[in-house]
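Hi, here's the filled form for the chain we discussed.

Project: internal
Contact: R.S.
Residues: 816
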Amino acid sequence: MTKHDCYHCGLPIASPDNGKFTTVILGQQRDMCCPGCLAVAEAIVNNGLEDYYQFRTEPAQKSDDSILETLDKLKVYDDPSLQEEFVFEEGQDKQIQLTLEGITCAACGWLIEKQLSKVEGIKQVAVNVQERRALVTWSPFQIKLSQILSTLKRIGYVGSPFHPDEHEASYKREQKTFLKKLGLAGIMTMQVMMLMTGLYFDWFGAIELETRQYFYWVALTLTTPVVLYSGSTFYVGAAKALSAKTVNMDVPVTLAIFGTYIAGIRSTVLEQGEVYFESICMFIFLLLLSRFLEHRSRHRASQISANMMQYVPVSATKLNPDGSLTECLAKQLKIDDVVLVKPGETVPIDGVVTDGNAAVDESMLTGEFNPVRKSNSSPVYGGTVCQDGTLTITVTQTLKNALVNQIVRLQASAMASKPKAAQIADNFSRYFVTAVLLISALTYGFWAYQGSDEAFWITISVLVATCPCALGLATPSALTCAMAKLNRQGILLKRADALEQITDIDTIALDKTGTLTKGKFTISNAWYADGVDSNSALSIARALESRSEHPIAKAFSDGVALSETSASSGSADAIDNTVHKVTNFTVTPGGGISGEINDTLFSMGSAAFSVHESQLKLIEAFPSANVFLTVKGRIMAAYEVKDSLREDAQETLDILAASHTLAVLSGDTQQNVNALTAPLPISTAKGGLTPEQKYEAVQAMQQSGAKVMMMGDGINDAPVLASADVAIAVGNATDVAKTAADVILLGDQLLSVPELIRTAHQVKQKIRQNIGWSVGYNVLILPFAVSGLLSPWMAVVGMSLSSIIVVTNSTRLLSK
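And the returned structure, exactly as it came back:
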């Protein structure tokens, strides 16, 4: 950048002497090319962030000349109907993923995070420089989205809502650049290798010195684009590390490349000394190859989840109230809209079946290829395929909140978290790089003191051979491959470090209802108080349960009848069809439900929740009852509601019991829990527990030294899920349970849990193998490099092969 270039964007200033656009930056008067760049620069300085100009490695993009006039146009993003598509609710806060334009280096990410974090109302900012994305969480009560985008605009960046298609295009551009650099390095490496190998082994015969020098100049010409273009990836990484006052593996790589390249130029120009142009090209090519493999495997998990969106069709067949059919965009569907899905068609959106019966292929979500039979009240998900019937579906989620979109968001969140093993490896790598630089300096000093002419080349060999690239790839490559594998099997990780914790688990606690059991309840017995009409009681129970999302509610659904019902006032052959209006309805997690009908308060749930103390002795008359209907605490009716064990529960628990202690923590009666768990390999079975008591039970296990995994699916499981070392939401878990969980099973198979544990142990083994190989190789090769027995080209081959072995070892997880 010359003094006649814009200090902000680096472009030439049309009239450098007019002094029209200037400001003071870093203590000096700086010239700008336009009012846009001036406005951005002043905003950066006024916010105390002018260190950006010291950190940056590339000029910023030219700013909009009419920046101050266009800020008002961003207010359109405050429109709730527009936000509906891309803004997500996070409790009382809102969250958005932004695609950022104008990012040129790591300093840009630093600047954006620092600037936005100073704005009142913004709770969290995370910038991914490589993907040019930002995740922003803010309070809508303190700041508007347009103000966030305006803040970005004022410092020279354009933010717009992130769309998966744009992200995929960005990844392909990045991949294309990678392949260009790798292809150039590969082609030039072959040419230089053929040329220099012929000279080394005297394949050209006794050639004159002038001819040899000519070959050196040709090799230099072929090597230069490899160094300046293909190797730029490493120099940028080294510059970013040094600007942040730290070191990474790119630092010794950069020193080795430029040291060898400059020494080769000197030898060629002065016509004396050795040249290692083939080593430079091979070094860059092999290092790029290993990073390309790591780059591809690192994106594999996110690609699998992001590409799930391709299964969701663009259009849908909407069934209008008058019975007519119209084609519409799936993204335009709203809650309670009705769509028709014919055989062979893909379900366009999440919903509930209101008519029809069909087998649905859900393999794209769960990894299970056996079709699932769907009928009335069955949930269906966008992207699944209706195979052999026609379904009428009522929409329950907009496309933005559909399950596939939730998976993409959760997977992105998991990939953003850094496991402890990766953090330890990163820290160790920094110390290792520092040690490598120190050892290299001492090596050069020793051999120079000995008067060796090879001191420089021995030092280069040390820098190359001991570069800890493989160590840096050891943990992330294994974790991302494992996450991709689990994702294909319908196991979704919300935290990458959950895999590490799973290997330490020695106790597994399970909820009963909906976890061990199918969650499909039936009323097997009922009792009624004297003077209570059974039909009226069932009608009231049905009205209350119609408001509940608990699986037990389905036992009281419309049309239920009791085949065997004992009652003090007779049997119920049919249900009273009276429709009761319920007001002041409330849900008590782990207890039950209550509501007013005709100004009379009714409660329904466990005995501890719904029955008054004065009535507790009456419960002894029906000990197997687990659901009580009461009016003002007095028992009207008692029901025994039963559930059946999952088909794969016995097999799953037999596998888990071989290496874990198993416990059941349930809100159901102790009698029902004992009956269910008697044939199972369960060490502890506790029933009649409230959510607080489940939480306390897990806390007691942990205080005794146990590492606990909790499996549950209901709202009442949320506290205990949050307290466990690892939490798993099973099957069709509630949103609250999914929020508290670390792992979500998208399918309905408990056998996914042993597979999850097996994969976690495989990952731990792979990480140990990778780290062991990386450290072992460096320790083994270091004496040979320091002693001068290792030439630069040998060091290049060894280091690169070490990285490739680590990545290849990690990718084996995908096939196991």
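Let me know if anything looks off before we file it.
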